[in-house]
Amino acid sequence: MSTRLQGPSNIWITGASSGIGEALTRSLARGGHHLVITGRRPDALEKLAELAPGRVRPAVADTTRKEDLASIAPTLESVGALDMAILNAGTCEYLEIDRYSSDVIEANIVTNVLGTARSLDIALPALRRTRALGRPATLVIVSSSAWWFPFGRAEGYGASKAALSYFAHSLRADLAAEGIDVVVVSPGFVKTPLTDRNDFPMPFRISAEDAAERIVSGLAKGQNEIAFPKRFTWTLKLLGALPGALVDRMAANMARKSTDQQETTE
Fold first, then answer.
1. Is the pLDDT of residue 14 over 70?
2. Which residues make beta-bridge pairs with 185?
3. Which of 94, 100, 157, 166 is flagged as catalytic?
């Protein structure tokens, strides 16, 4: 049986100032856990800290900046043994193929992949200290189900999430001997400030609060793969399992439709 979240835990959450990260902060604070919350907006973090003064500590940082992360490492140590790190900070920038720019690819990779990798510079030593005390330690990486199908305009975002998932699964293999669990979270469409900018249909979109509850429930059950909502994720998996030529045709047709809709909107 899983021992995750069974009692008050010390948890670090990145990307905590909005979206899934904010909803996770609220859910875990209600559960009595001790949180260090990281984001780039001090005011948003301070407001969340008011949920549980003394149990929720802001640690302002840009996860893409090594120096920012190094500066908050003492805050992680101050809560005691770190039981769980939830690396959730991310971005989503779409590529307009007629105005191709590698800057879009870079922006997604830097935030989603390098930001997560750099967060491990301080998270991994903290989790190892926890394991040295004989306590369970869990690393949670929030990826996406988007990369399971080649959506148009998602070259940068999908590639970054594919890299992130591979990164997480490789970490799981390497850290197994140390007893550090690695959990991969693969959400579908979740209503957040990022998805509010989307100009296309988002099937089965759920609220950030719903997403947070599914993640917390999956963690408590000891799941190492948490994907939701099931109707969407299973649909993507089934589509991805079709013959490659058929997948290519479907993706191309969907991309042309998306472009036509955008031109009409504009």
1. yes
2. 142, 226
3. 157
